[in-house]
Amino acid sequence: MSDPVSALNRVTFDGFVKVEEMGPRGMITLRGDHALPEVKNAATGVAGVNFPGQRECRVVEERGLAWMSPDELLVMVPHGEADTAVASMESDLDGTHSLAVNVSDARAVFRIIGPGAREVLAKLCPVDLSPEAFVPGTIRRTRAAQVPVAFWMVEEDVFELVCFRSVAAYVFDLLKTAAIPGSEVGYF
Amino acid sequence: MSTRLQTGGRLIDRSHREGFSFNGKRLTGYAGDTLASALLANDQMLVGRSFKYHRPRGFVAAGGEEPNGLVNLGKGGQFEPNQRATTTELFDGLTAESQNHWPSLEFDIGAINAKFSRFLPAGFYYKMFIHPRPLWKHVYEPFIRNSAGLGKAPQDRDSDRYEHFYAFADLVIIGGGIAGLQAALTAGQAGAKVILMEQTAHWGGRAPVDGVTIDGAPADDWIAKTVTTLEGMENVTLRTRMMGAGVYDHGYVLGYERVADHCPGLGLPRHRLWRIRAKQIITATGAIERPLSFAGNDVPGVMLASAIRDYAVNWAVSPGDRTVVVTNNDDAYRTAICLKQAGLEVPVIIDARPEASGALPEAARALGIRVETGKGIAKVLGGKRVTGVALCAQAGEGAELEQVPCDAVAMSGGWSPVVHLWSHCGGKLNWDDAQAHFRPDANRAPTSHDGLPFVISAGSANGELHAAATLGDGDAAGKTAIRALGLSATAGGVAKAEAEAEEPMTPVWIMPQGAGVKLRSKMWLDYQNDVKVSDVQLAAQEGYESVEHAKRYTTLGMATDQGKLSNINGLAVLSQSLGADIPQVGTTTFRPPYTPISMGAIAGEARGEVFQPLRRTPIHEWNDANGADFEPVGQWRRPYTYLRNGENRADAVKREVLNTRNNLGLLDASTLGKLIVKGPDAGKFLDLLYTNMMSTLKPGRCRYGLMCSENGFLMDDGVVARIDDETFLCHTTTGGADHIFAHMEEWLQTEWWDMQVYVANATEQFAQIAVVGPNARKLLEKLGGMDVSAEALPFMAWADGELAGIKVRAYRISFSGELSYEIAVPASQGRAFWDACIAAGAEFGLMPYGTEALHVMRAEKGFIMIGDETDGTVIPQDLGLNWAISKKKEDYLGKRAQQRSHMTDPKRWKLVGLETVDGSVIPDGSYGVADGINANGQRNTQGRVTSTYYSPTLDRGIAMGLVLNGPDRMGEVVEFNKVDGTTVAAKIVDPVFYDKEGEKQNV
């Protein structure tokens, strides 16, 4: 196996925030009834974090769980562990109606870092990014300009954003454009 | 002449001079000037020619309502036409040119139109140019287009950048005058999250110019103090140079922020469009003074009284030594007093009212200004500049009483609240007889999703014109908003604003009231579109009773200023002509934006690199570096072909087809849709989605399937692989991936919610690489790692394994008719696998091929293509695909529709192959012609071409088409039309041109 290559191979940009493509990240779409203990246990078992509530994302380094919809979770693990994690969840969920799919390579992950991070995203996404409304641990599935994205806040001034791999260059260019020094809005 | 006063000017900084040019002339102004104030300070009163009659025009107003002062601004990539000089802040190096004149502003040949103005009445174009019809297109329209129009179209690409910004607030307040500031203070202190926006660069609105005092001190003091207080509040955002452009459903507000118009060249985004979701909105947008309709009211030097006051107080600009004031209200006396106090002459105040005895008229008299009551202006003297006015009795027909020489005329016909933003989302208006204007009716406010009001009007925008009431009204609006937000107001009084008391105004719609037609045809209502009192009266006479009809017939209010000055005067004239009351006639509809906003702001960031998303496969970079000639496929960029050493496209496609048929081809098929369908009911679900049976497919095997809409039309196709008992992988077309995924979810969520099925879109998880041609197996065997023999991996089977050390899933499927494997690898390994194939394939004659070779090869095999053979009106039965429609199934999507009479009509055109008799290629889109013509005089048809190519394999033109009774007419020759009007003969044949038995793909 060659080393896995992410869409933009960890490209970075320094504007009034720093934008980084994060390289490969293990991601699994898990569909199933969140109320079922089997589903909860399968997810928390591989991710090692607590089960998230609505619009919550719990991430510790490369592992985490994100609430995507009432019957969908995004499970994050290190890239090399994704297939094993799928197998482990499938065995936990044997007999329970569910679907676990490795989508690690279908995505690109960016970090937006800096005090202006809220503003950069608010230029592209119709989301209330004010500190009252968006706090570490919040996730939103939305759009950035013309493509679907999801993002969550890791800690104050640090967001992680995922988009489809095919539009990684577009999203990176969007983030760069929004982060050009001098275009700070000064709103938040 | 207009000039700069020696002292004063609250907005200018005399220590900073700014150089600029107007029509090539180099001029200077001060920091804080607008282009309009700087031009006036340089005695440039004449700034443009009118739209229709090319009459000389000067500034009328000082703000966003200005109809005349439009310029071509900037150069090259920063050029923009129709920019209002009154709202353009001066900066060093600004260049502007006046518009709509030829050959020059001073001498304009189009002004000849004015001499013929009685031949250009309302509706002139409709009446004159309607007959004969053909002349409209070829003679009249080009001529009219040449003579009309204001600014020039930009020639260069816009060199600036723009952006959007999404914000959410409890309360958006539009307008930073004293009412807006007070409302922000009240709401801010109660803890509401407030955005307060002001379209100019300054807070406070008119109050400082009008001499208002607040708590006993000049208004400026209170404004400065209040802004400081608001700036100290975490929950309040203040933005100047930001106009409320529109109010939309459910509290959506567009804010148009002109970030860098006043400081170009710093690399800032020029405009930022704020897209704000607000729970409550306060429109504190002020009021606009109305002109008076007297003969010659458009001569440069005739201005709104408030504008003359603005220029004098804000920018220390005198419009002339002698200014005559003409009014129907007390407020205009402020202009007379202001000018007099600045040391300028006011020869006379002409007041249309029978008497004027209020505090302001008395103050004017005390300054020694002559006041003539019951009088009007019979006409303005002068052409390119006011030289005087002729007085008359307002009650009469316009007989001249005396002439008064002057340089400027300050007119005031009363004030109209700016109700635009209130009205955008359905706020209703009441007619206020006393102030002769429409004002918001708080009981009929725009309502939101909950049926409750979400817009509140405040201050003079609410009809509270007097400063004393304005401040209290702002506070009341703030409190209304607070209650609606569920907050409570804090204790504390409102500051006390004071200004001179005003006596009632008297509406004056025509001056003098008995003016004859000669005078009326010189009374301008709409300066920008050259609409006169006589035009509106003519429209009324001709039966245009509805205000909306009269507007379109006369073009009143249809220019870029959208009738900000002309609206009320125009409909008052219309209602008088109709003998109806103004409220009965009503007003035209107010639509966003309030004033024009730039196209760039609307586009936001979407230009250049990020104009639209381009989707790239994991192989994209290799493709790009190796001659790929890309074509758009949805938002993907796929190689149409790979050009080598100076080949043209056709040669490259031919080479790729022949090489794939004879040796080995490699195709980047990553864009194919890959949907994973899993659950106990997955088989049942797919049996309903596809026309054929999927539930009987064995794990490890593949089956080609067709998907129809509920109307029976073929919408997508692809190979389905069964992964295990509960899991299927459905391939879709490239363009179908997203919408078929959505289609599946829709059926699962809305109709078949009881089915236990989950779907996931794994399209981008995999790079999919087709290895195609007689040498395909040899290549995979060389890469090594799994058994790809015919026995282990037969045609229409799949297997998981490893190739070249990479985890793969190999499908034995073929869209070319050759021995073919489609290899799916994780996208992060896609490039590595591709590179391994390229490296190992040299000895087998490997060449990558593009989408066109793919198309040619599938056409040679008679395989249909969604979007070529289908167009949303084609059912599988039309395409001879009955073999893929299960007879055993009780139901599938489209089954019922396919049984309807039109769908089973034997006359439906059916798919056949077409072979030209002369071997040429039938043009794309060609129709099979039949004898005779139809009712529309068009040639009858009997079929159409759906795909047509030069086949390198057969060295001739081949095509597929839908032909009347086609399958029953094998061997018949049908004529197909060509672009040059001739036809080409083609023989009806089987659509499979190559390897009919399918031996090559099954080896």
From TrEMBL, chain A:
Membrane-spanning ranges: none
Q: Which SUPFAM superfamilies match?
A: Folate-binding domain (SSF103025)
Q: Name one Pfam family in it.
A: SoxG
InterPro entries listed in its UniProt record:
SoxG (IPR007375), TrmE/GcvT-like (IPR027266)
Q: What is this protein called?
A: Sarcosine oxidase, gamma subunit family
* Coiled-coil region list: none
The major lineage groups are: Bacteria, Pseudomonadati, Pseudomonadota, Alphaproteobacteria, Rhodobacterales
Origin, by domain of life?
Bacteria
TrEMBL record, chain B:
Which segments constitute the FAD/NAD(P)-binding domain? 170-426
Q: What is its EC number?
A: 2.1.2.10
Where the record annotates domain GCVT N-terminal, the positions are: 619-889
What's a Pfam family this protein contains? GCV_T_C
Please report the stretch or stretches of sequence annotated as the Aminomethyltransferase C-terminal domain.
Answer: 910-995
BP terms from Gene Ontology: methylation; tetrahydrofolate metabolic process
Similarity section: Belongs to the GcvT family.
Q: Which PANTHER family match?
A: AMINOMETHYLTRANSFERASE (PTHR43757), AMINOMETHYLTRANSFERASE, MITOCHONDRIAL (PTHR43757:SF2)
Q: What is this protein called?
A: Aminomethyltransferase
Source organism: Actibacterium lipolyticum
Query: Organism classification, top ranks?
Result: Bacteria, Pseudomonadati, Pseudomonadota, Alphaproteobacteria, Rhodobacterales
The primary gene name is: gcvT_3
